[in-house]
From TrEMBL:
UniProt name for this protein: (rape) hypothetical protein
Keywords: Glycosidase, Hydrolase, Signal
First and last residue of the signal peptide: 1-28
Any one GO molecular function term: polygalacturonase activity
Amino acid sequence: MRSLLYTIGSLLILLLSHDGGFTGAADAEHTFRAADAEHTFRATDIHTHRHRRNHGHRRGEEFEYSALSCRAYSASLDEFGAVGDGVTSNTAAFRDAVSQLSRFADYGGSLLFVPAGRWLTGSFNLTSHFTLFLHRDAVLLASQEESDYEVIEPLPSYGRGRETDGGRRFISLRFGSNLTDVVITSENGTIDGQGEPWWGKFKGGELKYTRPYLIEIMHSDGIQISNLTFLNSPSWHIHPVYSSNIVIQGLTILAPVTVPNTTGSTLVRNHTDNLKIPITDSCTNTRIEDCYIVSGDDCMAVKSGWDQYGINYGMPTKQLLSRRLTCISPDSAVIALGSEMSGGIEDVRAEDIVAINSESGIRIKTAIGRGGYVKDVYVRGMTMQTMKYVF
Protein backbone atom coordinates (compact mmCIF):
# COMPACT_ATOMS: atom_id res chain seq x y z
CA MET A 1 0.00 0.00 0.00
CA ARG A 2 1.46 3.39 -0.98
CA SER A 3 0.91 6.18 1.50
CA LEU A 4 1.90 9.76 2.22
CA LEU A 5 2.05 10.72 5.89
CA TYR A 6 1.65 14.23 7.29
CA THR A 7 2.06 15.04 10.98
CA ILE A 8 0.83 18.43 12.22
CA GLY A 9 1.20 18.78 15.98
CA SER A 10 -0.86 15.99 17.49
CA LEU A 11 -2.82 15.56 14.26
CA LEU A 12 -2.13 12.61 12.01
CA ILE A 13 -3.26 12.81 8.40
CA LEU A 14 -2.67 9.71 6.32
CA LEU A 15 -3.28 9.97 2.59
CA LEU A 16 -3.81 6.47 1.25
CA SER A 17 -3.50 5.35 -2.33
CA HIS A 18 -6.30 3.53 -4.10
CA ASP A 19 -4.90 0.07 -3.43
CA GLY A 20 -5.49 0.07 0.32
CA GLY A 21 -7.74 1.35 3.05
CA PHE A 22 -11.31 0.48 3.81
CA THR A 23 -12.51 -3.09 3.78
CA GLY A 24 -15.85 -4.57 4.67
CA ALA A 25 -19.46 -4.82 3.57
CA ALA A 26 -20.73 -2.13 1.25
CA ASP A 27 -23.14 -0.33 3.55
CA ALA A 28 -22.96 -2.03 6.91
CA GLU A 29 -19.43 -2.06 8.32
CA HIS A 30 -16.12 -0.48 7.37
CA THR A 31 -12.78 -1.37 8.92
CA PHE A 32 -9.86 1.00 8.37
CA ARG A 33 -6.34 -0.12 9.18
CA ALA A 34 -3.53 2.40 9.34
CA ALA A 35 -0.17 1.88 11.02
CA ASP A 36 -0.97 -0.13 14.16
CA ALA A 37 -4.49 1.20 14.61
CA GLU A 38 -7.72 -0.40 13.53
CA HIS A 39 -10.94 1.57 13.34
CA THR A 40 -14.35 0.06 12.66
CA PHE A 41 -17.36 2.10 11.66
CA ARG A 42 -20.80 0.60 11.81
CA ALA A 43 -23.47 2.39 9.83
CA THR A 44 -27.13 1.55 10.03
CA ASP A 45 -28.29 -0.61 7.13
CA ILE A 46 -30.53 1.03 4.55
CA HIS A 47 -33.04 -1.19 2.77
CA THR A 48 -35.27 -0.69 -0.25
CA HIS A 49 -38.96 -0.57 0.62
CA ARG A 50 -41.97 -0.80 -1.67
CA HIS A 51 -44.73 1.29 -0.13
CA ARG A 52 -48.38 1.17 -1.12
CA ARG A 53 -50.59 3.93 0.19
CA ASN A 54 -53.23 2.06 2.17
CA HIS A 55 -54.38 4.68 4.65
CA GLY A 56 -56.05 8.03 4.25
CA HIS A 57 -58.41 9.08 1.49
CA ARG A 58 -56.38 7.91 -1.50
CA ARG A 59 -55.29 4.29 -1.67
CA GLY A 60 -53.25 2.11 -3.95
CA GLU A 61 -50.45 4.52 -4.94
CA GLU A 62 -47.15 2.65 -4.89
CA PHE A 63 -43.55 3.83 -4.84
CA GLU A 64 -40.13 2.55 -3.81
CA TYR A 65 -37.63 4.24 -1.54
CA SER A 66 -34.50 3.32 0.38
CA ALA A 67 -34.71 3.96 4.10
CA LEU A 68 -33.78 2.77 7.54
CA SER A 69 -37.37 1.71 8.29
CA CYS A 70 -40.63 0.97 6.54
CA ARG A 71 -43.82 2.50 7.97
CA ALA A 72 -47.19 0.98 8.79
CA TYR A 73 -49.30 4.12 8.28
CA SER A 74 -49.23 6.89 5.69
CA ALA A 75 -51.05 10.02 4.61
CA SER A 76 -50.74 12.60 1.86
CA LEU A 77 -50.17 16.26 2.65
CA ASP A 78 -53.13 17.38 0.55
CA GLU A 79 -55.44 15.41 2.85
CA PHE A 80 -54.73 18.11 5.45
CA GLY A 81 -55.86 20.99 3.26
CA ALA A 82 -52.50 21.83 1.73
CA VAL A 83 -52.36 23.55 -1.67
CA GLY A 84 -49.28 23.18 -3.86
CA ASP A 85 -49.56 26.41 -5.82
CA GLY A 86 -46.38 28.04 -4.52
CA VAL A 87 -48.38 30.88 -2.94
CA THR A 88 -50.67 29.40 -0.28
CA SER A 89 -49.03 28.91 3.12
CA ASN A 90 -49.08 25.25 4.16
CA THR A 91 -47.46 25.64 7.56
CA ALA A 92 -50.63 24.68 9.42
CA ALA A 93 -51.16 21.66 7.14
CA PHE A 94 -47.66 20.32 7.75
CA ARG A 95 -47.97 20.82 11.50
CA ASP A 96 -51.37 19.15 11.62
CA ALA A 97 -50.17 16.22 9.50
CA VAL A 98 -47.14 15.53 11.69
CA SER A 99 -49.22 15.89 14.85
CA GLN A 100 -51.80 13.38 13.60
CA LEU A 101 -49.21 10.90 12.34
CA SER A 102 -47.16 11.07 15.55
CA ARG A 103 -49.86 8.94 17.20
CA PHE A 104 -48.58 5.94 15.23
CA ALA A 105 -44.98 6.16 16.49
CA ASP A 106 -45.43 3.07 18.68
CA TYR A 107 -47.53 1.18 16.12
CA GLY A 108 -45.19 0.77 13.16
CA GLY A 109 -44.47 4.43 12.46
CA SER A 110 -45.85 6.73 9.78
CA LEU A 111 -45.05 8.32 6.44
CA LEU A 112 -46.15 11.74 5.16
CA PHE A 113 -46.24 11.86 1.36
CA VAL A 114 -45.76 15.25 -0.32
CA PRO A 115 -47.25 15.11 -3.84
CA ALA A 116 -46.03 16.97 -6.91
CA GLY A 117 -46.45 20.71 -6.52
CA ARG A 118 -44.85 23.79 -4.98
CA TRP A 119 -45.54 23.76 -1.25
CA LEU A 120 -44.85 27.01 0.59
CA THR A 121 -44.32 26.52 4.33
CA GLY A 122 -42.80 27.91 7.47
CA SER A 123 -41.16 25.81 10.15
CA PHE A 124 -42.62 22.61 11.57
CA ASN A 125 -41.36 19.95 13.96
CA LEU A 126 -40.66 16.34 13.08
CA THR A 127 -41.57 13.29 15.17
CA SER A 128 -40.12 9.84 15.94
CA HIS A 129 -40.51 6.76 13.72
CA PHE A 130 -41.48 9.08 10.89
CA THR A 131 -40.69 9.44 7.18
CA LEU A 132 -41.17 12.62 5.18
CA PHE A 133 -41.25 11.56 1.52
CA LEU A 134 -41.26 14.08 -1.36
CA HIS A 135 -42.49 13.19 -4.83
CA ARG A 136 -39.84 13.79 -7.48
CA ASP A 137 -41.79 16.84 -8.70
CA ALA A 138 -42.44 18.23 -5.23
CA VAL A 139 -40.74 21.45 -4.15
CA LEU A 140 -40.86 22.62 -0.54
CA LEU A 141 -40.53 26.41 -0.55
CA ALA A 142 -39.30 27.93 2.70
CA SER A 143 -41.26 30.96 3.80
CA GLN A 144 -39.34 34.22 3.66
CA GLU A 145 -41.40 35.72 6.52
CA GLU A 146 -39.66 35.94 9.88
CA SER A 147 -43.02 35.43 11.61
CA ASP A 148 -43.16 31.86 10.25
CA TYR A 149 -40.16 30.86 12.39
CA GLU A 150 -40.32 30.55 16.16
CA VAL A 151 -37.43 32.15 18.05
CA ILE A 152 -35.59 29.61 20.23
CA GLU A 153 -32.68 29.58 22.66
CA PRO A 154 -29.07 29.19 21.48
CA LEU A 155 -27.41 25.80 21.38
CA PRO A 156 -25.62 25.13 24.69
CA SER A 157 -22.30 24.48 22.97
CA TYR A 158 -22.49 27.87 21.22
CA GLY A 159 -23.78 29.98 24.10
CA ARG A 160 -23.98 33.55 22.89
CA GLY A 161 -25.05 32.45 19.41
CA ARG A 162 -23.48 32.76 16.01
CA GLU A 163 -24.67 35.95 14.37
CA THR A 164 -26.41 38.28 16.82
CA ASP A 165 -26.07 39.48 20.41
CA GLY A 166 -27.95 37.39 22.94
CA GLY A 167 -27.68 34.17 20.99
CA ARG A 168 -31.33 33.51 20.24
CA ARG A 169 -32.11 32.09 16.82
CA PHE A 170 -34.89 31.36 14.38
CA ILE A 171 -35.93 27.71 14.47
CA SER A 172 -35.04 25.67 11.38
CA LEU A 173 -37.49 24.95 8.58
CA ARG A 174 -37.51 21.27 9.61
CA PHE A 175 -36.68 20.79 13.27
CA GLY A 176 -36.60 17.88 15.69
CA SER A 177 -35.29 17.20 19.19
CA ASN A 178 -35.04 13.99 21.23
CA LEU A 179 -36.24 11.85 18.34
CA THR A 180 -35.59 8.29 17.21
CA ASP A 181 -35.73 6.95 13.64
CA VAL A 182 -36.38 9.95 11.37
CA VAL A 183 -36.18 9.73 7.57
CA ILE A 184 -36.37 12.65 5.12
CA THR A 185 -36.15 11.27 1.60
CA SER A 186 -37.42 11.51 -1.95
CA GLU A 187 -36.99 10.58 -5.59
CA ASN A 188 -34.89 13.77 -5.93
CA GLY A 189 -37.53 16.27 -4.90
CA THR A 190 -36.39 19.74 -3.83
CA ILE A 191 -36.22 21.81 -0.67
CA ASP A 192 -35.67 25.46 -1.64
CA GLY A 193 -34.68 27.78 1.20
CA GLN A 194 -35.42 30.94 -0.83
CA GLY A 195 -32.62 32.51 1.16
CA GLU A 196 -31.88 35.70 -0.76
CA PRO A 197 -33.90 38.06 1.51
CA TRP A 198 -32.21 36.54 4.55
CA TRP A 199 -28.75 37.07 3.03
CA GLY A 200 -29.55 40.72 2.39
CA LYS A 201 -30.86 41.28 5.92
CA PHE A 202 -27.82 39.57 7.39
CA LYS A 203 -25.46 41.66 5.27
CA GLY A 204 -27.29 44.83 6.29
CA GLY A 205 -27.34 44.00 10.01
CA GLU A 206 -31.15 43.95 10.05
CA LEU A 207 -31.71 40.63 11.84
CA LYS A 208 -32.24 40.36 15.59
CA TYR A 209 -31.72 36.59 15.63
CA THR A 210 -29.51 34.00 13.93
CA ARG A 211 -30.89 32.88 10.56
CA PRO A 212 -32.79 29.58 10.25
CA TYR A 213 -31.31 26.41 8.77
CA LEU A 214 -33.19 24.10 6.41
CA ILE A 215 -32.92 21.03 8.66
CA GLU A 216 -31.75 20.79 12.26
CA ILE A 217 -32.14 17.63 14.33
CA MET A 218 -30.69 17.52 17.84
CA HIS A 219 -30.37 15.02 20.71
CA SER A 220 -31.61 12.28 18.37
CA ASP A 221 -30.65 8.81 17.15
CA GLY A 222 -31.17 7.16 13.76
CA ILE A 223 -31.41 9.94 11.16
CA GLN A 224 -31.50 9.56 7.39
CA ILE A 225 -31.57 12.43 4.87
CA SER A 226 -31.35 11.18 1.29
CA ASN A 227 -32.12 11.62 -2.41
CA LEU A 228 -33.04 15.30 -2.29
CA THR A 229 -31.92 18.58 -3.84
CA PHE A 230 -31.32 21.46 -1.42
CA LEU A 231 -31.15 25.05 -2.66
CA ASN A 232 -30.41 28.48 -1.23
CA SER A 233 -30.67 28.03 2.51
CA PRO A 234 -30.89 31.21 4.61
CA SER A 235 -27.84 29.85 6.48
CA TRP A 236 -26.62 26.29 7.07
CA HIS A 237 -28.42 23.64 5.03
CA ILE A 238 -28.31 20.47 7.17
CA HIS A 239 -27.32 20.47 10.82
CA PRO A 240 -27.43 17.29 12.91
CA VAL A 241 -26.20 18.17 16.39
CA TYR A 242 -25.72 16.16 19.62
CA SER A 243 -26.98 13.10 17.70
CA SER A 244 -25.84 9.63 16.63
CA ASN A 245 -26.20 7.11 13.80
CA ILE A 246 -26.76 9.50 10.92
CA VAL A 247 -26.83 8.81 7.17
CA ILE A 248 -26.72 11.69 4.65
CA GLN A 249 -26.83 10.18 1.18
CA GLY A 250 -27.47 11.03 -2.46
CA LEU A 251 -27.96 14.78 -2.05
CA THR A 252 -27.44 17.63 -4.49
CA ILE A 253 -26.81 20.81 -2.50
CA LEU A 254 -26.43 24.13 -4.30
CA ALA A 255 -25.67 27.51 -2.75
CA PRO A 256 -24.69 30.43 -5.00
CA VAL A 257 -21.01 31.25 -5.20
CA THR A 258 -21.34 34.74 -6.71
CA VAL A 259 -24.11 37.25 -7.19
CA PRO A 260 -24.23 40.51 -9.21
CA ASN A 261 -23.37 43.57 -7.14
CA THR A 262 -25.57 46.65 -7.09
CA THR A 263 -24.12 48.00 -10.32
CA GLY A 264 -24.97 44.79 -12.12
CA SER A 265 -21.70 44.95 -14.03
CA THR A 266 -19.33 42.76 -12.01
CA LEU A 267 -19.43 39.69 -9.83
CA VAL A 268 -18.50 39.79 -6.16
CA ARG A 269 -18.54 37.20 -3.39
CA ASN A 270 -22.14 36.86 -2.39
CA HIS A 271 -23.79 37.60 0.93
CA THR A 272 -24.02 33.94 1.91
CA ASP A 273 -21.50 33.86 4.75
CA ASN A 274 -21.90 30.63 6.71
CA LEU A 275 -23.75 28.78 3.94
CA LYS A 276 -21.97 25.62 4.94
CA ILE A 277 -23.70 22.51 3.71
CA PRO A 278 -23.81 19.31 5.78
CA ILE A 279 -22.64 20.29 9.27
CA THR A 280 -21.98 17.39 11.60
CA ASP A 281 -21.78 18.97 15.03
CA SER A 282 -21.00 17.00 18.21
CA CYS A 283 -22.30 13.82 16.54
CA THR A 284 -21.23 10.17 16.68
CA ASN A 285 -21.26 7.66 13.81
CA THR A 286 -22.17 9.75 10.78
CA ARG A 287 -21.95 8.70 7.13
CA ILE A 288 -22.07 11.28 4.32
CA GLU A 289 -21.87 9.80 0.83
CA ASP A 290 -22.72 10.16 -2.86
CA CYS A 291 -23.40 13.90 -2.75
CA TYR A 292 -22.76 16.78 -5.18
CA ILE A 293 -22.15 20.07 -3.39
CA VAL A 294 -21.53 23.64 -4.61
CA SER A 295 -21.04 26.37 -2.03
CA GLY A 296 -19.52 29.79 -1.43
CA ASP A 297 -18.46 28.51 1.99
CA ASP A 298 -17.17 25.13 3.18
CA CYS A 299 -18.83 22.26 1.35
CA MET A 300 -18.75 20.05 4.43
CA ALA A 301 -17.98 21.27 7.93
CA VAL A 302 -17.16 19.24 11.03
CA LYS A 303 -17.82 21.04 14.33
CA SER A 304 -18.22 20.53 18.07
CA GLY A 305 -19.03 23.83 19.73
CA TRP A 306 -17.57 27.26 20.25
CA ASP A 307 -14.93 28.43 22.75
CA GLN A 308 -15.77 28.07 26.46
CA TYR A 309 -19.34 26.97 25.70
CA GLY A 310 -18.09 24.08 23.57
CA ILE A 311 -15.34 23.20 26.04
CA ASN A 312 -17.84 23.06 28.90
CA TYR A 313 -20.36 21.04 26.89
CA GLY A 314 -17.59 18.63 25.99
CA MET A 315 -19.21 16.58 23.23
CA PRO A 316 -16.84 15.72 20.35
CA THR A 317 -17.67 14.78 16.80
CA LYS A 318 -16.32 11.29 16.17
CA GLN A 319 -16.65 8.30 13.84
CA LEU A 320 -17.36 10.33 10.70
CA LEU A 321 -17.11 8.67 7.29
CA SER A 322 -17.46 10.73 4.11
CA ARG A 323 -17.07 9.17 0.68
CA ARG A 324 -17.85 9.66 -3.01
CA LEU A 325 -18.46 13.39 -2.78
CA THR A 326 -17.98 15.91 -5.59
CA CYS A 327 -17.47 19.42 -4.22
CA ILE A 328 -16.91 22.95 -5.56
CA SER A 329 -16.02 25.74 -3.13
CA PRO A 330 -14.07 28.57 -4.80
CA ASP A 331 -13.67 30.62 -1.61
CA SER A 332 -13.36 27.98 1.08
CA ALA A 333 -12.70 24.34 1.93
CA VAL A 334 -14.12 21.13 0.54
CA ILE A 335 -13.94 19.56 4.02
CA ALA A 336 -13.35 21.86 6.99
CA LEU A 337 -12.53 20.62 10.47
CA GLY A 338 -13.59 23.53 12.68
CA SER A 339 -13.22 26.27 13.32
CA GLU A 340 -15.84 25.65 16.01
CA MET A 341 -14.23 22.50 17.39
CA SER A 342 -13.95 23.21 21.12
CA GLY A 343 -15.49 19.86 22.06
CA GLY A 344 -12.99 17.97 19.91
CA ILE A 345 -12.97 16.14 16.56
CA GLU A 346 -11.66 12.59 16.16
CA ASP A 347 -11.87 9.49 13.96
CA VAL A 348 -12.62 11.21 10.64
CA ARG A 349 -12.39 9.21 7.41
CA ALA A 350 -12.69 10.63 3.88
CA GLU A 351 -12.37 8.59 0.69
CA ASP A 352 -13.00 9.09 -3.02
CA ILE A 353 -13.61 12.83 -2.78
CA VAL A 354 -13.44 14.96 -5.95
CA ALA A 355 -12.58 18.62 -5.30
CA ILE A 356 -12.90 21.04 -8.22
CA ASN A 357 -12.11 24.78 -8.42
CA SER A 358 -11.92 25.04 -4.65
CA GLU A 359 -9.69 27.01 -2.32
CA SER A 360 -8.54 24.02 -0.25
CA GLY A 361 -9.14 20.30 0.03
CA ILE A 362 -8.94 19.49 3.74
CA ARG A 363 -8.68 22.47 6.07
CA ILE A 364 -8.15 22.43 9.82
CA LYS A 365 -9.45 25.68 11.30
CA THR A 366 -9.23 27.02 14.83
CA ALA A 367 -8.74 30.28 16.74
CA ILE A 368 -7.09 31.63 19.87
CA GLY A 369 -8.93 30.36 22.94
CA ARG A 370 -10.93 27.78 21.01
CA GLY A 371 -9.49 24.78 22.84
CA GLY A 372 -10.47 21.28 21.79
CA TYR A 373 -8.47 18.96 19.55
CA VAL A 374 -8.41 17.38 16.09
CA LYS A 375 -6.96 13.87 15.81
CA ASP A 376 -7.09 10.65 13.81
CA VAL A 377 -7.95 12.08 10.39
CA TYR A 378 -7.45 9.74 7.42
CA VAL A 379 -7.89 10.62 3.74
CA ARG A 380 -7.78 8.19 0.82
CA GLY A 381 -8.25 8.64 -2.92
CA MET A 382 -8.91 12.38 -2.99
CA THR A 383 -8.79 13.95 -6.46
CA MET A 384 -8.15 17.71 -6.62
CA GLN A 385 -8.42 19.91 -9.70
CA THR A 386 -7.57 23.64 -9.87
CA MET A 387 -6.98 24.16 -6.16
CA LYS A 388 -5.34 27.05 -4.33
CA TYR A 389 -4.23 24.84 -1.41
CA VAL A 390 -4.23 21.15 -0.59
CA PHE A 391 -4.34 21.82 3.17
